[in-house]
Structure formats: C-alpha cells, structure tokens
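Record format v2
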Amino acid sequence: MKSDVEISQESSMEPIVKIADKLGISEDQIEQYGHYKAKVQFDPKTERNDGKLILVTSINPTTAGEGKTTVTIGLGDAFTELHKKIALALREPSLGPVMGMKGGATGGGYAQVVPMDDINLHFTGDFDALTEAHNTLAALIDNHIQHGNQLNIDPRQIVWKRVLDVNDRELRQVVVGLGGRTSGVPRQDGFDITVASELMAILCLATDLTDLKKRIGQMLIGYTYDRQPVLVSDLHVQGALTLLLKDAIKPNLVQTIEHTPAFIHGGPFANIAHGCNSILATQAALHFGDYTITEAGFGSDLGGEKFMDIVAPKLKKSPDCVVVVATVRALKLNGGADKNNLNTEDLNALETGIVNLKRHVENMQQYGKPVVVAINKFVSDSDAEINFLKDYVHNELGVKGAVINSWAEGGKGAVDLAKEVIAACDQPATFKPLYSSDNSLLEKINAIVTKVYGGTNVELSNKAKNALKRIEKMGYGHLPVCMAKTQYSLTDNAKQLGAPTNFTIHVSDLQLKLGAGFIVALTGKILTMPGLPSHPAALDMDIDENGRITGLF
Amino acid sequence: MKSDVEISQESSMEPIVKIADKLGISEDQIEQYGHYKAKVQFDPKTERNDGKLILVTSINPTTAGEGKTTVTIGLGDAFTELHKKIALALREPSLGPVMGMKGGATGGGYAQVVPMDDINLHFTGDFDALTEAHNTLAALIDNHIQHGNQLNIDPRQIVWKRVLDVNDRELRQVVVGLGGRTSGVPRQDGFDITVASELMAILCLATDLTDLKKRIGQMLIGYTYDRQPVLVSDLHVQGALTLLLKDAIKPNLVQTIEHTPAFIHGGPFANIAHGCNSILATQAALHFGDYTITEAGFGSDLGGEKFMDIVAPKLKKSPDCVVVVATVRALKLNGGADKNNLNTEDLNALETGIVNLKRHVENMQQYGKPVVVAINKFVSDSDAEINFLKDYVHNELGVKGAVINSWAEGGKGAVDLAKEVIAACDQPATFKPLYSSDNSLLEKINAIVTKVYGGTNVELSNKAKNALKRIEKMGYGHLPVCMAKTQYSLTDNAKQLGAPTNFTIHVSDLQLKLGAGFIVALTGKILTMPGLPSHPAALDMDIDENGRITGLF
C-alpha cells in the first residue's frame, strides 16, 4: 500500500496557472509560489456571492480520524467528474501536529490536495507570518513597559501571550524577563500554538486589508494598573502588524490529485478558536466557482456550530447544504467498542453508538438547511455494518446519505454522494440562527449547550463569573460566543462518548477577543499549546539527496 | 527627498524570469515567488567556479551606518553599466532589526535591491523556516526528557536554546516547563534571535541538501548527566529538520533598481556568527556570472576576517579583490568628533580618525589580495574632506580608491570604483590564510587578536579556560574560530574607536558549534538577543487599503 506522500509525489500536477484558468482566474491575478502554488489577488468587493455553498462537518472525531478532509476533497473531485465548476475552501495544516502525529490535514490516499509536502511544511508562509506578527506585538508590549511604561500597563494583567507553530508543552507556562535591569521586567507568561492566536482568527474573519488593520487595532493586550483595557491601537502598531500580514491575507490556490482547484487559507483550531478557513478563501471560491465545498473543524458541535453562528453572519451567506461525515469505526467506538478491536464486525456497538450521528444530524438540521450523511468507508467495515448505517440514515434519520470511498477511488468514489449534495443544494431552505446578538452572553452559551451539545446546565467558575461581569460592563455582551471545548465528546469531558444527556458544561474562564469580535468560553481542560507524543512523527521523517520525502504520513 | 520605500515602490521592476535570463538561467530552473522573486534550482556540483569574486567590507561601522550594502549594490549596477555579466550575493535582512531601527539591509536611495518591502518582510520565508526548525528541535529535546529521557540528557546542560526573529530582550533569560507534571521539566532557558542560530550558520555553510543534513545531525544540543555530548543525530531528527529547510536552502534571486541580478540568501549576524550570505548563493553567482560581488557583515575585523578564514576554505575560492568602504563621517567619529556635529567640516578629526581605515586596509592586505577603497560620499562631506581622504588613500596607503555616490546616482555614481575593481581583479595574487588548522585554538584566537584587531593579549575567563580544555579533549581543536565581538571597535569595548594598540581581548566563553564546524569565542558583552529602542521603527510603519507602504525606512 502506498503512503500518502508517495501518492502525492507520484501524482502529476498541472501548472497552477492552468488550475487558475479553470476558474477563470487570469495569470495577472495570481502570484506564483513555485509552479504549483499561488496566492490569488482578489477584491472581495467585486464578489459574486451566488455560488452554492456546501459545508462539511462530522460526528465527534476519534483519535483514529474520520477522514473529513478526505471526504471533502473526494467530494470536490466528484463534482469535477460531473463537470461542475467547483472550488474547495480548506484550512492550512499547523506544523505542530504535523511534527507530532501521523495523519495530515491534506486528505489521504487518492483524495489529497497537492503538493502535500509543501502544504504541510510552511506552505506559502502564512502561519510563519502570523507567528512573527504575534511575537513582534509581544516584544513591543514588553518594550513599552521597559522604556517607561507610559500607558501604565500592569505586567501581571497582560493577556497577550507569545506563540510558536510547534507542539511544545515546555512553553505553556514560563517566566520571562529575568536577567536584571537591561533584560526586561520579570513576569509570568506562556506560549500558545500559532493556530490559537487571535491574529489567526482575525486573518480568517477579515474581509480585506483595511478590515484586518481595524481588527488588529481593536485587539485587547492587557489592562492598566487601574484595570482599564489596553488595545493594540494604544501602542500605535496596528500598521506594522498589518504590514507583516500583507501577503498572508491573500488566499492560496492549489489543486487536488484530480486537478480540482482548492483554496487553502488560514486554520484556527476548532476546539479553541472558530475552526474554519478564511472568509476570503470562501469568498474567492464562491466568486470563481459555481459550487464551493468548505470544511469546518471537528464535529458539528465545534466547527459546525461556529461556522453557522460566527462565520455565516460575517460571510453574509449560509450553507445551501450540510454534509455530516460518519464512519462505522467511530460510531462503534462511541458505542463502547474497544479501540484496539475496531476491525472486527460489531453491530451491537454500532447500534449503541449511532446516537452520536443522530445528534450531529439534528444539530445541523435545526439551522434550517438540508443535511446529507457521508458514510466514509474503511477497508475493515463489513457489508452488514455499512448496510445497517445506510438503513439508519435513510429510515431513522430520514435524510439522504451515500457511501463514499474516495480514499481508494478518488472522485469516482464520491459520485453518489455528489449527486445527493447537488440535489440538496436546490432545495429551498431558510437559515435559522441559533441565537440573536440581543441575547445575553449567558443565554448564548445556554443555547449552544442545550440545543447543540444536548446538555442541561452551564456552570461558571468564579473567575468566569467575574469575567462575564467585566465583559458586560465594558459593553461587549452583544458579541457571539466561541466555545473552547474538547472535540471528542459533546460534553466537556473527552471520555463521555455517544450522545449524553443531563450534563453540565463547566466554563472556567471567558476571554475577550475584541479583534476577532467574539468571546471565548473555556470549558473543561482545554490546552492552547499541545504537547508531542512519546514517538513524534518527526522521528520517522526524512528527505534524501534527490529531494524524495519519506515519513510525512 | 524621497524615502527608500518610495523609491523602491516607484521603481519599475522587470519580471524575475527576465532577470534570470540575463544570467542564462532558464524558466525551468526557477521557482517564482510572486513576479519579482524566485528560488533558483542549482546543482553546485556542476559549478563553474572561475568567475571573479569581489568581497566588500568596511571600516568599523558607526550607528550612522557606512552604507556598505548601498556601495555593494551601486558597484554591481556600475558593472551593469559597463556591460559586465555581474551577479550580487547578499544577506537577507532580519525582521528583528527591521522592526527596531530605521535603516534596512537592502541598500538605500538609488542603490537598492527590490522589492525592498518584500525582502525586508519575510521574503521567501527562509528565516521563518529556520525559526520553525530551530524551535521544533527544542521541543523535541524537552519532549524526549518528558517521555523518559532515554538519552539521560541533563536539563541543566542543554545548550540548544530557542529562537525568534524578533528583537525581544524579555526572552533573553526565561524559566520554562512550569505548570506541573504534564507541562514539562522546569529549567532555565533563553531565546536568541534567529540569525544567531547555529542552523542559520549551517544553512550558509552547507554545500547541498546532504551536507545540510549531515551538519544538522552533528549539532551539539547538550550533555548527559555524566557529561557526554548529545548530538541531534542521537535524537534521530536530522531528517525532519532538513525537511523543514528543503526550500530555505535554495538561493533567492531578485534585482536591483537598475535590474542587476542579486542572489540574497541567508544572513547570520557578523558579531555573533560568521556574517556572510550562503555559500550556495555565492556559488550560484560565480556559476552564472563573470563577476560576483559579495558583502561580509560589519568591518574587516568581523565579517571580513570570517570570510577569509571560515568561508573561503569551504567555498574553495578566495576573493580576487577586496573593497573597503569608508565614509568621512565615520572616520571623523573615530577621530573624536561629536556624533551630533558630523555635518560640519572637521579635517582634524578626519586626520585623527583615519587610522581606523589604515588598519582595515592592512587587515585585508595581509591575506595577499589587492585592496580598493570605496569612499562613500554623503551630502554633508566637504570637498576638502573628500580630497584629504582620496589623497591619504593614494599617497599614504598606496592603494587604489574612488569616490562612490550611488545613493544619489545609482550605478553611474560607481563607475570609477568599478573600473578600479576590475583592474584589481586582474592582478595576480596568492591567498595567504591567517592561520592553519594545525594551530591550537588559542593560537588561532591570538592570530586574530594580534594580526587583525591589533591587540597584544588574550585573556580567558575561568569558564572559557574550562571550555577550551573540554573542547580540545573532545578532539575539536582543529576547528576554525568564529569571534563574537562588538562591531563598533577593534577591541572588545564598543567605546574604543580609532586604531587602539596595547589592549587585551577578554574571552568569556567558548561555544562548540559542531554542525557549523567552528568554535565561537564570546568576547566582552555580546548579546545574542537584541532589544528594541524606546521608539521602535514599527511605530511609524503603515500600509493603506491600496497596499501603499509607509515608514519602512
């Protein structure tokens, strides 16, 4: 069996100029980064927003992975098979996880975006630019304090941490500024992974360079000794930070193995941020294609909910159809099967765990849009298991569904699904938001917990209660809420699988993200800086003298 | 008067494909990064190494700047004026200083490399890739310790710090690994600026991808509890780190305002590392051009000496001519003039300070190669001052010299200098190295101190003495020495200008850089992480809705 990187390196790519041309993008509108990657010059003000939008989300993911990106890419290739003018809109991978765990963010098997090695490694430098801009701001804050602290910033109340695009638990909690008078002011600090930076969220929500600069200026960096908020604009550095992101804001264009155009741009994590690719990439896809397929991170409870409640209002467009990805393996796990025993047929576990799929389908249905279930087939699935699942989707859930096998077959393996999706896109449907901006912050959190997670209560820690009071007093109660929650469960406890009821969500803190324009509610134990496993993927990677890569998935 | 960024943005660039074509580089051999930047696919094994090589160095720099890069670029444009097949080989700017102090590394006035904004901001991502690779290694080291520490690494003896391409004094000395059992092992650590990373030195010394990987594997990361060295190869991650640098190793091609081709690649600082662009960039220039002009950082005592003693042996070629850049202003400062009074004619100060030029010319002459002095003219220089300097160069030093005014006139302002340089390149000359690898480390340091700095003694701290013993015991006494010293003085005290004699150089520590293949000798108080000034340049930078940039010099 060939590895993903082998399939990728053996695939014959078309020059990116030709891929752009498929969408009617001229050579003048792109800046090439090598022969197979380009940044697209695109003025969102000229946007034609009437393409059909398809959102791909999933059941709760397991450590095995549900292949949501593989499904998204395969579905795109099926649209190409059906001669539709299609563009994908996807997130960029983060190097931290790439170096840590096997399994990339560029699809798998014969449903991949290429060149997968470049996309997984630095790509066009967007994340590196974000890292640089984020840390430049951090340095400017400490430098302001060092040189007299005219703004009266309290070093104990700085909320702007530092970031690296590395999984590095060692940097979660640090003390900086040691070494005496000439080396800064000692204080507690910490590093997040770059994809958790508010700058990443902003890059993905900004509608143009001016909006980006405005949002950067609004970011909260800390408080003064008399507890007044300090914004980036108080430091007068929003111009310099925007300058550092002048290229990062432009969407990137690549292709799938089957030459379907794919915009890949931005990538905030969905458990700690809003988890969707940039609005500009989705707008570019909608502008140039007749159909756009985009993917939201993790399950419908995280990326799916956030796409609907945070992204759609800013995009001024909601999905015409939602695809929920499910696998037999993950549903069996949700039904109590042993994770080391998923290759064995187990209809009981499947029947027990299938409630997880039901919840995710209903989650998306309540937004008023048609839902199609994609059954992502694995080699180990038995016919009986697949049939049971198909049957359940059709008869119990009453929605359309299709088996997809793009990992092995590329676009051909997703044609059935594509036909269902195209049909669904033509159904008339009205978007029903979960909450209105008039709702209080607590009402918004309650709406998400009860209507999406299936829980009953929200419990705020004292810290969260104080933060809530302060945020409302500051006049930011109208902002949407971005939940930070484990992706593995509908609850805030990663071990509670299936479709739990009667549970409480524990909010430990609320963070004000004024640039992104949302309030992050931290639940359970959510880490904003991952660690590496005992055998990191990096140990198996190599490149030989001819540039042949091994071990990159 | 137009700012550098205005001149740059108004200049009419040629497509990079056309610039490559001037050197006989086909479209297949380049990967475009936008329309005006490219990475060059170049196999150094096919190298034609018989082009003429010109090294530009200077007197001790002052905070005002001697315009060495401006001279280098102007000289290149003069070669173009004279219809010579010329290629420049320059260093990439570091974003830390760009955000800190006015004055970029891309030349000035009408002698600039363009697009200067892109070159100063991320460029093709090389430094970002180095930052990522460096910190990935740091995370892998701490992760190894966290997961059982099979290699028995002593957390107190880790020599591999972390890096950011930011001027951030707050990160010089930090404590990492706080937060309990799941967040690493608490220990002392620190951040250097990316250009001080050994990976940067290696990128600039590697001759191909295989050599890069070999050198990365050899890097020393720390010691075990029983004081045995631990190398990157012990962790088995040289493959992954090389993979992260697979594009960074390729030289970048851009152009000057007058369309002279320029390879810009790598940029280790010259006060803490070897201070020259990559060997691959110089090789590419030598391969494709008849003349190559390259620049070494700071004065002849730093970048100049290091080019001769560290780079030339690895390049297997020494310069055919050395250009020493001098300015009236800097020599007056060296002669005791007030730095706020440099616009006033002061022949006495010039006469006193000119000994600094004498020392730098003699420094380079002792390597056996012809020296030409470039008198870089400033608007404030009086005719009497310029004439005095010309006269001194000709009659007292007995070397060729010419006034250059490329800042105002571009290549035309450097034609006289170019003619002298071309003539010098045709003189027969034999390269005389300063020391041989058979010399002991102390003999090598002594040779540099007495023959280049003009000092009399070397004093080692106890720490340095112990390090020396350990390094020699480990069998690395044959390696060359890379001095870390202030750029402002020939001594290790930044305030001692002119050409001091009878002084002692104080070596505080010796660091083993096994990947780079040299021993760093730290003298005086050399910082490997700069700080920002009280009014950082970032505060004045901006970009408007049309992408027009202001404040970037």
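Residues 126-244 of chain B form a domain with the Domain 2, N(10)-formyltetrahydrofolate synthetase fold (CATH 3.30.1510.10).
Residues 39 and 182 of chain B are 42 Å apart (CA to CA).
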